[in-house]
From TrEMBL:
This is Polyisoprenoid diphosphate/phosphate phosphohydrolase PLPP6. One of its GO terms (cellular component) is endoplasmic reticulum membrane. Its main location: endoplasmic reticulum. Keywords: Endoplasmic reticulum, Hydrolase, Lipid metabolism, Membrane, Nucleus, Phosphoprotein, Transmembrane, Transmembrane helix. GO terms for molecular function: isoprenoid diphosphate phosphatase activity; lysophosphatidic acid phosphatase activity; phosphatidate phosphatase activity; sphingosine-1-phosphate phosphatase activity. It catalyses: (2E,6E,10E)-geranylgeranyl diphosphate + H2O = (2E,6E,10E)-geranylgeranyl phosphate + phosphate + H(+); (2E,6E)-farnesyl phosphate + H2O = (2E,6E)-farnesol + phosphate; presqualene diphosphate + H2O = presqualene phosphate + phosphate + H(+); 1,2-dihexadecanoyl-sn-glycero-3-phosphate + H2O = 1,2-dihexadecanoyl-sn-glycerol + phosphate. Belongs to the PA-phosphatase related phosphoesterase family. It is a multi-pass membrane protein. Its EC number is 3.6.1.68.
């Protein structure tokens, strides 16, 4: 009977290697436990760093990048704050909100009332009549008419009234041109620059010179001319319709006309306070009488 193989130390090979069948007779029980423990140790954390890193990189959390892994470095630096001028003003003042709302309502209402702004508008057939009414409130006809009446007047009281009317008209032209040059509000977009006579400042809209003149002249006439009640009502209607026609023609916005009425009312108060007479302005009346 052949002798079993021996290793270098003279021991049988069967005593060193475990049996593949795993039976206790051949020492398979100890070998099986050894193989099971080695398998567990290979799957334990820290056993194979390469496999652990691979499993971490394949995890859904790591792929999405939604949450940083535990033990990662410090969080990325926050972006620098925006400059003060680039930040959004989340708390605007009540006055600013009110002014913006008033401006929006003004533009919307002015566009709605501009029914005669063009020939193709809804009331385009009334446009020639509105333009004739525009001429009745223009500054040049009033200045020329006042100068003509002043040259034809032969009474001291009449010349005094006409002299103050001329002064009020000149004051109106000066103040309106000054405010228009300072504010520089453009006329409505639907306006057509086909006015009777326009100066350089007439390209601006605020305030309405026709509205200031209508309020000034109507108050002047009502206070210094003796008129019947129907004529007084007609003067008031003329000033109101003239101001409304400025919006209907698309020349001005509603706030331009409203401020024009207020400015014309104040202008008459100034003229009445600085009333020119032969007592406080004798040189002016003497020079006029010499002419």
């Amino acid at each position: 009977m052949p002798s079993p193989r021996r290793n270098a130390e003279g021991r049988p090979l069967a005593a060193c290697a475990p049996s593949s069948s795993g039976s206790p007779a051949h020492g398979g029980g100890g070998g099986g436990r050894f193989e099971f423990q080695s398998l567990l140790s290979s799957r334990a954390p820290g056993a194979d760093p390469t496999c652990a890193r691979l499993r971490a990189s394949e995890s859904p959390v790591h792929r999405r990048g939604s949450f940083p892994l535990a033990g990662a470095g410090s969080s990325p630096a926050l972006p620098p704050p925006l400059p003060e001028e680039d930040r959004m003003d989340l708390n605007p003042s009540f006055l600013g909100i009110a002014l913006r709302s008033l401006l929006a309502i003004d533009l919307w209402l002015s566009k709605k009332l501009g029914v005669c702004a063009g020939e193709s508008s809804s009331w385009g057939s009334v446009r020639p009549l509105m333009k004739l009414l525009e001429i009745s409130g223009h500054g040049i006809p009033w200045l020329l008419g006042t100068l003509y009446c002043l040259s034809r007047s032969d009474s001291c009281a009449g010349r005094e009234v006409l002299m103050n009317l001329l002064f009020s008209l000149l004051l109106d032209l000066l103040l309106v041109a000054l405010i228009k040059g300072l504010v520089r509000r453009r006329r409505p977009a639907h306006n057509q620059m086909d006015m009777f006579f326009a100066l350089s400042v007439d390209k601006y809209s605020f305030p309405s010179g026709h509205a200031t003149r209508a309020a000034l002249v109507s108050r002047f006439i009502l206070n210094h001319l003796v008129l019947a009640i129907p004529l007084r009502v007609l003067v008031v209607l003329w000033s109101f319709i003239l101001g409304l026609s400025r919006v209907m023609l698309g020349r001005h916005n509603v706030t331009d006309v409203a401020f024009g009425f207020f400015l014309g009312y104040v202008q008459y108060s100034i003229v009445d306070y600085c009333w020119l007479s032969p007592h406080n302005a004798p040189v002016l009346f003497v020079l006029w009488n010499q002419q």
